Sequence to fold (568 residues):
Amino acid sequence: MICSRLRLALVLIVALGAAALTGSGTAEAQITGSQAMASVDAAPDGLHFSPDAAALPWPVAGWTLTVGGPDGFYQRQSFDANAAPALFVAGLVDGEYTWRLQANPQLDPQIRAQLESARAGGDQEALQRLIDLGRLPAPAPAQGGAFQVRDGIILDPFLAESGAALAEDSRQTAETGAHSVQAPALTNATEAYYVGNNLYVNNSACIGGSCPTSGLSFGYDTIRLIENNLRIHFDDDSIGSFPDRDWRLVVNDSSSGGRDRFSIEDATLNREIFTVKGGALPYSLYVDNGGKVGFGTSQPSVDLHVETGDTPELRLEQNVSSGFAEQAWDLAGNETSFFVRDATNGSTLPFRIRPGADTNSLVVGSNSNVGIGILNPDANVRLQVQADTSSNFGGLRVENSGSGNIQTQFANTNGGWEWRQTFRSGDMIFDSQEDGANEWEVDTGGNVTATSFNPTSDRNLKQGFEAVDPEQILERLAAIPVTQWSYRGDAAGTQHIGPVAQDFHAAFGVGADDRHISTTDADGVAFAAIQALYQRLMEKEAEIDTLKEQVRLLLELQRADGATALEP
Fold:
């Protein structure tokens, strides 16, 4: 009968997964992908990679190496297919770093053109066809690892610790049934033991090559593993249609300068699935009893709650493993704004929302109409702006911070017509692209240039008709001073002739105010004055006709008397 705690510990090693110790003392390359795509050499100046493109099932267009490190350090480098990626230690501060090497698949140019066209047009069916036809490569798992920089030098990540080697598995058949072990510990037991039935331990257990023979204070620990390479392997030997994937719990890297970590690995694929780094902040990941998830908080108030002292962020990063171009977007927020950052193209911020923005500041309706300041934009209005303000500037402002023009375009792609409104050096221009000419222009001096003006004068749009006295209008017009002058904003030498609005308004009392002369009113005064002049002309012509008749009669009388004095 097995009757020592030491023998019991050896039995537990087998029962809990003795494979965790197998291979201890061998060098481990910290590979987190399903296959090693490159050999890695740790040199004094950095890490050097020798990729093996032949190990991959598709042609390689290049390699992408990303490195993360202390204080948010992040570096991404791209290399040609025939290049040897490298990471140089110069400039790196002391601390722990992780690296990832990604193979970039090479696509046929025609396939890439189809891919980009489908992406740009949002054609999901075309994308699915490319996938169904096997035109796109399956995403390639990355090869990764870790290293540590001390005093400006990379510690050799392939220098592994030696560990306790498990003795040869000489299984011994144990007695059937459960047994209580109470005898004194044996200190020289080296055999391996096999238990063929349930195992009950009525106390704590220590497992590992560094466990003492006695005197260990377990505290509240039920099982304690002690040695320099800690692994627990779950080896599922199911067959047939039953799931048989193997899993492994890993504590810390076994290489010099490696990571302090707790990980769950897919042991079948040798793939790191879940990792917690040593020194992680309190409540780095917290799931409450309602299913809410907190990052940095033990009190998640919504389904996903991220809390940090400075600008909580979420990164959405697409790598090239599926044939698409690299692109990374960040969603972040702080006391200045909520924003979207284009991390790939200069970390620009194309979208911002300032704290305190009103409800419905920006609304996209179910019909794709856009409202600014309004929840339900009108059905036939693509963009509707509503501002509740008494300010003169509560509308829409378009500002160009560069040196070019500002232009708005209105076009009908089916009808073949297009109008453009251009603001050029302060001037405003409306032009139709059908003839290439500017139909209407107004400059900063208020000068309007157009082919013709057609003021509305429809009788059906007018009311309050009253007759005017053309003669009186003419008399008033004749009394208005007409002078030659220049506008204060005119170019030097520019002259005009006409009345001033104050005199015009005083004479006729028409128009919106005494600072403008409406072309409609000016035309009306001119028409009335012309009528008065025409009336005077008709009267003069009638008077002239009468005088001419009198002269004719006098001439006839003179001829009858034989006189010639009055003949011309």
Q: What stands out?
A: The two ends are 169 Å apart (CA to CA).
